[in-house]
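In the current project phase, we have settled on a layout for protein records. One protein thus recorded is set out beneath this paragraph:
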Amino acid sequence: MAAPGNDAHTIRPERRHTRRSVLAGLAAFGALGAAGCTRVASASGEDGGDLLERLRAQGVVRLGIAGEVPFGYIDRDGNLTGEAPELARAIFTRLGVERVQPVPTEFGSLIPGLNAQQFDVVAAGMYVTPDRCEQVIFADPDYRMPDAFIVRKGNPLGLRTYADALRRHAKIATGTGYAQIQHAVEAGFKENDLVIVPDQVAGLNAVESGRVDLFAATAVTARMVARGSAKAESTKPFVALVDGRPKADGGAFAFRPTETRLRDAFNAELHKMRRSGELYRIVRPFGFTEAEMTTLTAKELCRR
């Protein structure tokens, strides 16, 4: 990795986010993602693909991001940041690729966009699930994450788990494509009764305005988004039950199925950073805790 103090690789966690600042940044970089080639060159897929060699020659890797704090987003100064882009900067520098370039899209378009060669890798903290493993290949997860809620200050309804929310007939919001949709349905909610909002800032606004009783998200998202709110707070993290068993999801980088050589090289550097503690040092400024680091593998999560 390049030295942590290198200006080009400086971690820039955002202290306070508004829907306007996040979306404005996405708009600014949306043009950038579309300005150059809208597609990346197709890999042969033979012997694990040759994308890594081509990225080294180009000197830039295109990252698919979904504008989600703290996983991957454009900050109010127009800079790409978040735990996944910062990890990508560190790892791709080690792999001989000098620059990262964001390609913003909606979360639900990340896998289709990757497989349509609109960018080279998904860098959005994407959970590894069996369904997604049929469409892409994952690096090993760089974090493992429980759920949490954003609720009104003081948590007047006492909402700490999905079971609490079901018992109190709470109105739930969560984000488009979020794993929390499944977690709520597993707890007994009907999917049609959930309020699906475009992002976590909209979820916070829904709680603050009283339109919903809670917004379900990852624990780190809830912590980061509710911080500084005068009307809302995040609950303590908890592990959701899926098929009757506790399930804490792991997030990872995703690659096209043909690009096993790139994925394996990425994994090798990720494992070195995990062992040295460098991985945690990079993600900690974005609200991640040491308890949320993991030694899970993508293979394990793809089987679940």
Observations:
- Residues 2 and 43 are 27 Å apart (CA to CA).
- The chain is about 35% helix and 20% strand.
